[in-house]
Amino acid sequence: MKPIGADGSPQPMEERHYKPAELAAMWGFSAGTVRRLIQDELGVLRLQGVGPTAGKRQYTTYSIPASVAARIHERLTHKPLQAALPRRNPRSVVFLRNRNTGVSQ
User: Fold this and answer.
1) Is the dihedral of CA 99, 101, 103, 105 positive or negative?
2) Chain-wide mean pLDDT for the chain?
């Protein structure tokens, strides 16, 4: 029996998982950009280097569930909100002297 959520959707372990390179190809980003987008995202599986790595770099493997990928994509496609500032009347210019004569009045 497959685990099903309260809303009838499959549990995260049942859904398709993507690699950063797969999402990068689908979205037109680099794999590094996708890794930066998902590194702190809730629901992303992260496997950090295990085993003896005496002096070697530790690698991190990411696995992104389809629901998390959809959430990230939706967040990226929303247009940023712009503050609606009230329009002001342009400042009026007041001349304190007659510009033709050069003499103050």
Assistant:
1) negative
2) 78
Q: Which residues pair with 1 in a beta bridge?
A: none
Of 7, 6, 15, 10, nearest in space to 64 by CA: 15
C-alpha span between 3 and 9 (Å, rounded):
9
**What band does 64 get if pLDDT is binned at 50, 70 and 90?**
very high
Sequence spans of domains, the chain: 17-51+58-77
Encode pLDDT of 26-57 as tens digits. Answer: 999 999 999 999 988 999 999 887 656 666 77
Q: What is the DSSP string of 44-69?
A: -EEEE--S--TTSPPPEEEEEEHHHH
Selection from 41, 38, 43 nearest residue 19 by Cα: 38
Distance CA 90, CA 46 (A): 55
Helix axes 66-77, 20-27, angle to 10 degrees: 40
**CA 61, chain centre distance (Å):** 20
